[in-house]
């Protein structure tokens, strides 16, 4: 694989909104972000097609596809991963999954504060993790209530994700040394995966078995599984 000028296609469908990005080497040359009331199944391939046409990059010229693999929207994760798998298997492109909480944390990387991505998991729970300023994992991804997770953290941190807005009152009521990210920082972007991929020294090789067997990282059972499992 070419390491100096990789064409990286990045796909994020971990929430109701979604984004597609293309990187040439370390440069982000395309980013599409949509928060529309249509499903990923209706718009994702249109976004990818627009990305390739706009940049003039053909699918067979893509060296690596990255995907946000969860936790997040169960339906969104399935659609995103199925699409990425189809593209990779058809063109023999390596696939690199990233945790969606780490993608969020990348929005605040390098600020000198621990980063606490926290997203609404419904049913009064959140998906959350804790990273240091360089994205080293301090607390692995988990799902719990806002209070349960935050009461276990004693160091200052900046909270990023949709719960920085939705849960602001609950967070501030704890009286801890937490800062809240600005609203424009609270969305996972596909372009962040390109930056994360460029920090990896050993890129994955194409592996049919690994791609075929990759599953979304749901972190918890769906409500349907809870009800009928």
Please provide a brief summary of the model.
This protein is an alpha/beta fold.
Characterization of this structure:
- This protein is of the alpha/beta class and 229 residues long.
- The chain folds into two domains: 7-100 and 188-228, 2-Layer Sandwich (Nucleotidyltransferase, domain 5), CATH 3.30.420.40; 101-185, Nucleotidyltransferase, domain 5 (2-Layer Sandwich).
- The protein contains nine helices and ten strands.
- It has helices spanning 40-55, 74-91, 100-105, 146-150, 163-166, 168-173, 190-197, 208-213, 223-228, and strands at 7-12, 18-24, 27-34, 64-68, 95-98, 114-122, 125-131, 137-144, 157-160, 178-180.
- The strands form two sheets. A five-stranded mixed sheet has the order 3-2-1-4-5, sandwiched between helices.
Proportion of strand residues: 25-35%
Terminal CA distance reads 44 Å
Any idea what the radius of gyration is? 18 Å
- Provide the succession of SSEs: EEEHEHEHEEEHEHHEHHH
* Strand order in the largest sheet: 3-2-1-4-5
What's the count of strands? 10
Would you identify the CATH H-level superfamily of the largest domain? ATPase, nucleotide binding domain
Count of individual domains: 2
Compute the average pLDDT. 91
Shape: globular
The CATH top-level class label of the largest domain: Alpha Beta
Discrete helix count: 9
Low-confidence stretches: 222-229
Work out the helicity level.
25-40%
* Biggest β-sheet description: 5 strands, mixed
As for the CATH topology of the largest domain, it is: Nucleotidyltransferase, domain 5
Structural class: alpha/beta
**CATH-level-2 architecture of the largest domain:** 2-Layer Sandwich
């Amino acid at each position: 694989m070419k390491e100096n000028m990789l064409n990286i296609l990045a796909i994020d469908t971990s929430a109701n909104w979604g984004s597609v990005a293309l990187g040439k080497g370390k440069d982000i040359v395309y980013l599409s972000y949509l928060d529309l009331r249509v499903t990923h199944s209706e718009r994702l391939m249109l976004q990818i097609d627009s990305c390739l046409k706009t940049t003039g990059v053909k699918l067979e010229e893509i060296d690596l596809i990255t995907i946000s693999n969860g936790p997040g929207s169960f339906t969104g994760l399935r659609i995103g991963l199925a699409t990425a798998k189809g593209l990779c298997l058809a063109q023999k492109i390596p696939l690199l999954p990233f945790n969606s909480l780490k993608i969020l944390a990348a929005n605040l990387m390098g600020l000198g504060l621990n980063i606490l991505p926290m997203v609404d998991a419904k049913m009064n729970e959140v998906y959350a993790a804790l990273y240091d300023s360089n994205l080293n994992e301090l607390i692995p991804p988990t799902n719990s209530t806002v209070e349960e997770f935050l009461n276990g953290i004693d160091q200052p941190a900046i909270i990023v994700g949709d719960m920085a807005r939705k849960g602001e009152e609950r967070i501030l009521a704890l009286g801890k040394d937490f800062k809240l990210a600005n609203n424009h920082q609270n969305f996972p972007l596909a372009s962040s995966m390109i930056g994360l991929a460029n920090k990896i020294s050993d890129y994955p090789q194409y592996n049919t078995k690994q791609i075929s067997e990759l599953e979304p990282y749901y972190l918890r059972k769906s409500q349907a599984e809870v009800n009928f499992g």
